[in-house]
Specification:
The protein has 403 residues and is mainly alpha-helical. Helices cover 70% and strands 1% of the residues.
């Protein structure tokens, strides 16, 4: 009888220890950042009409800080991709306090931005710094991915999804298996830590069953195509307007101030504050029977692209969840399908198509909505992902040439 045994090498054990330390550190920072962000959002909701007009002024402050004190940290996620794919040595530690502060302020004054950019950059900076202290060749990349996974997991508390997200977005079509287990360890530690410190996870249990027939299947295919097209358009238009607005306004102060005025006026006139910040209000309405306008997803789409292209800080992921869930809820009502199920499918499918991440999206569906929903969501998500065409909100992503 053949005997099998699992052997953990000293370096693998070392990575696991470091992953736990990184996960703990990142989880603490994520909890701190997330709890204050919740307070800021609550405050803005109460006084939006007084805060939104100052968004252009806040933009000037953000640019001033990055230009005079940021060095190259204003490149944000670009630094993370340079370090991961091109072995860049430089992710300045000052990036962490600067991205936290600028994101808090962007949310306080109503920019339509997310929060994952902060968490991923925090984790990546810590992981990369630890990796630089070692004399092991692949340590910087392994621990960079480990930190990215911890950052995403500490914020969203989806450790399996976070692991694959960190691995998938660096290089499309290639999985860094050496980083898989350290990233998973860090993700679980960060998730547990942030939850223990009081940061709550969004989850929604879906128990819907659909009796499939040819008409239902055709409706679901149509919905999947809509999700894929919207996610791809978001990624492509975001890349386009980042370049176009910079060409039109070479002076970053002028760019963020003028776009800030447009955002401020639009946010006030169009259902004051409805499209500001993360978009968690739209997510909540989509799943809890609230009123969703058929144009909610379009306006959130536009405000988010303009906010990020202008230079406001935060990220795209939570707004993508809001765009997907509100689009899904609208389509479900029009086509007579279960709203919560289609909203959940939109939540993950638009994210998948915009980020070019497949496995992470599957596990987000399972960890947020329950793994019993996978049989319904997976075909929709897969069609949306296929329609992506290798577009990504992360323009620096590396496409594996062997694909």
């Amino acid at each position: 009888m053949t005997k099998f045994k699992i052997v953990i090498s000293p370096i693998s054990f070392f990575y696991i220890i470091l992953a736990a330390i990184i996960g703990l550190s990142v989880g603490i920072i994520d909890a701190f950042f997330g709890e204050i962000l919740i307070g800021i959002t609550t405050f803005r909701n109460l006084y939006a009409i007084y805060l939104l007009p100052f968004l252009p002024v806040l933009g000037l402050i953000i640019i001033f800080i990055y230009k005079h004190y940021g060095k190259n940290s204003q490149k944000g996620m670009g630094l993370i991709f340079e370090a991961g794919n091109f072995n860049s040595e430089n992710i300045p530690k000052r990036l962490v306090p600067q991205i936290i502060f600028s994101t808090w302020m962007s949310h306080l004054f109503g920019a339509s931005v997310g929060r994952e950019g902060v968490a991923v950059q925090i984790g990546a900076t810590i992981g990369h710094y630890v990796g630089k202290l070692l004399s092991i060749k692949e340590a910087k990349k392994v621990l960079l991915i480990t930190g990215m996974a911890a950052g995403f997991s500490g914020l969203f508390q989806t450790p399996i999804a976070a692991t694959f997200f960190a691995i998938e977005i660096l290089t499309v079509g290639k999985i860094e298996y050496i980083a898989l287990f350290p990233a998973l360890v860090a993700s679980y530690v960060a998730s547990f830590t942030s939850h223990y410190l009081g940061l709550e996870k969004f989850s929604y249990s879906i128990n819907t069953n659909i009796h499939l027939d040819i008409f239902i299947i055709l409706k679901l295919i149509f919905i999947a195509i809509c999700f894929g097209v919207v996610g791809r358009m978001f990624a492509q238009l975001l890349a386009h307007y980042k370049i176009k607005l910079t060409d039109k306004f070479p002076n970053p102060y002028k760019k963020i101030f003028i776009i800030g005025i447009l955002l401020s006026v639009g946010l006030i006139l169009l259902h004051t504050n409805r499209y500001a910040g993360l978009g968690t209000n739209l997510i909540s309405l989509s799943f809890n029977g609230g009123h969703i306008n058929v144009y909610d997803w379009i306006l959130k789409f536009i405000f988010t692209i303009l906010s990020i292209s202008a230079g406001f800080q935060g990220g795209e992921v939570t707004p993508l969840f809001a765009i997907g869930s509100s689009l899904g809820a609208s389509l479900a009502l029009i086509l007579g399908l279960p709203v919560d199920l289609i909203a959940a499918a939109g939540y993950v499918s638009v994210f998948s198509a915009a980020t070019n991440s497949y496995f992470a999206s599957i596990f987000i569906a399972g960890e947020v909505f329950g793994f019993g929903t996978i049989e319904y969501i997976l075909p929709i998500l897969t069609i949306a992902y296929i329609l992506n065409g290798n577009s990504s909100i992360y323009s620096q992503v590396k496409i594996n040439s062997s694909m």
